[in-house]
Amino acid sequence: MSRQRQDQLLALLLRQDAWSTAASLADQLGVTPRSIRTYVAALNARVADGDAVESGSAGYRAGAHAHDAVGTGEQAHTPRARLHRLLRALVDDPGGIDVYDSALTLQVSETTLENDLMRVRALLDGTAVRLERERDAVRLRGDEQALRRLLSRLAQDEMDAGPLRADALQRALAPEAVPAGAIGPFKAALVGELGSLGYYVNELAISDVLLHITIAAERVAGGRALEGRSTADDDAVAAVGEAIARLAEQHFGVTLGDGDREHLANLVLTRVVTPGDSARERAPRSTDPEVARAVRAEIEQAARDYQVDLVDDAFALRLTLHVQNLLHRSQEQAWTRNPLTRSLKSSYPMIFEVAVSIASGLHDRLGVPLQEDEIAYIAMHVGGRLERSRAADAILTATIVCPGYQELQELLRSSVDQSLGRLIEVVRVETSVDPDWRDLDTDLVLSTIPLAGADDRVVRIQPFLAEADVERVQQAAARIRRGRRLRRLRTELQRYFSADAYLVPLPDIGEEQIIRRLGGMLKAAGLIGEDYVENTIARERMSSTAFTDALAVPHALQMSAQRTAIAIGIADGSVAWGSGRVQVVALAAFSDTDRDAFQTVFEQLVEVFSERDSVQRIMRRSADFESFLDELVAVIDG
Asked: Domain map of the chain by residue range?
């Protein structure tokens, strides 16, 4: 039984937070329903009280003790745990270990240990650490920084891209040096200290910094401190370093030297804090002109390509500082994980795509690394900039129908503006007791008098706006906006789908071969060339286009198709894609003349395939192209 599959199932149920059938879960993991039942039993066996996974007539869902089962039950004889123990032994002993003695300690055969050493060599590939062997003795060679990065990698593997967990740290680090119970109080104290120094703390990235601090504390306790560094006159580094050192001694009983102070302070300053006014006045950090020019150029290019409002001096400055920090982290190969990466991709695919485009350009100009978690942080900057313009675009016009006294009308309008001003804009107040309803051409009509007949735009409200009135208007506004988006999507999909670019069943042959297979259909129609297929594969290598657990939308960053078209492949179950599996692949080829279609089709298609019930309905009833299009339109219509 695969423990990794169990963990994948648990992560899937935690993300969905709803009932799922064994069949749908099996499709997403690429196994049988019987295997799902076996995994559920194994997961429930990990917790002593209650269930990690609940079972019912509707299928399975994450139970009250689901989080207790994350990262637990790892036995010493499992390959991953054994590999970690072997690496820990190598890191802890600079003189090396004996192969035969280690086999006895780990209770495995010498052949098994030799295979584990081969896995160690593969794990070290591309790092600054190497494995040396002389007869029966093996040892690691690398500087202290490289060995710490290796320990960080082990701990992150234990945490499986989740939040920082004390039990995972204990397996990857030495619990006697860093007590698990001290990590929480240390974090709270550190956040408080940084706040008092005038910094805003990014809680999403602080787990990685805590990991590095605990690794440093453990290594220093073992007599392996970093050598003193050439400290520049930087008040910010000095202040943050002093706070970290004081808290490390208080909570961990470890005295950090100058090298560790400066190293950890730089990690904090380049990862988890944004200086407020007081911090900027105390230690202002200038922007690198080359980085600023590159960021500005890529912002302007993305604004043109995606027709979004990105060009703004304040946004450019924030992103420039972020990129400078990213370049600093890349020099030390110290990456920051983003726990929101998956949800950003599925909930805001257009924003994530803009971030991929910016990251790709910065990679070409500055050598910025294309790590998916780092792209997600750029996406958060982009989303913050677009929030205001998106909110403005989402505002609906409204007419208030309110016969009576002027004072009453003014009071009602004021209440509407105060409670609903971010959703609607009142452009007219009608005071007649018998208005011409057909003449009211706004998106919504908020009426204190009844309407003779039916009109979805009209929302009945009270003269003195109540909470229930506000909720009804909000629901009506959401319904109108969604209806508009889906009507646009239906129109676009009918234009861009073709029976000649529809493949069922989609073979499970890997991302690149699937892209070539679907791309070949569009090439045969004369819509794209081989360069578009290659560019799509290059885009896929930057960051997986599996934007939901069901759908992948591979595409090129360049909008070079003759006209916009989409090739659809539907799997018989699911196919492997990136680190997971998907059920539908939509290869999208966009043309330069259809930039508006990119946002409409791309974002809304992902929205439709984010709903599991809709996915299963489309999968069950899409025997041919016509039935697929009929079901897709029916789902869109709701």
From this structure: 3-69, 79-142, 167-282, 289-386, 395-465, 487-637
**Per-residue pLDDT at 435:** 85
List pLDDT tens digits, range 448-480.
988 767 788 899 998 888 899 999 999 988 888
pLDDT band at 342 (very low <50, low <70, confident <90, very high): confident
CATH superfamily of 487-637: Mannitol-specific EII; Chain A (3.40.930.10)
Q: Could you tell me which residues are beta bridge partners of residue 133?
A: 138
What is the tens place of the pLDDT at every residue in 79-138? 777 787 888 888 888 888 888 888 888 778 888 888 888 888 888 887 888 888 888 888
| Closest C-alpha among 218, 146, 137 to residue 176 | 218
Domain 289-386 has CATH 1.10.1790.10: yes
Task: Give, for 501, the enclosing helix (H) or strand (E).
Answer: strand 497-506
Q: What is the reported pLDDT for 161?
A: 42
- Please tell me the distance from the alpha carbon of residue 142 to that of residue 102, in angstroms, as a whole number: 21
Mean pLDDT of 38-57: 82
CA distance 53 to 41: 8
Distance CA 214, CA 220 (A): 10
And the tokens for 443?
């998106």
The CA distance from 428 to 214, in Å, is 61
Say how far apart CA 638 and CA 634 lie, in whole Å: 6
Write out the DSSP string of 23-35.
Answer: HHHHHHHTS-HHH
CB 44 within 8 A of CB 51: yes
Task: Write down the architecture of domain 395-465 according to CATH.
Answer: 3-Layer(aba) Sandwich (3.40)
Q: Which two tokens stand for residue 421?
A: 């001003």
The closest alpha carbon to 252, from 174, 200, 310, belongs to 174
Distance CA 128, CA 620 (A): 51
- In terms of CATH architecture, what is 79-142? Orthogonal Bundle (1.10)
- Give how far the C-alpha of residue 413 lies from the chain's centroid of Cα atoms, to the nearest Å: 41
Mean pLDDT across 213-230: 81
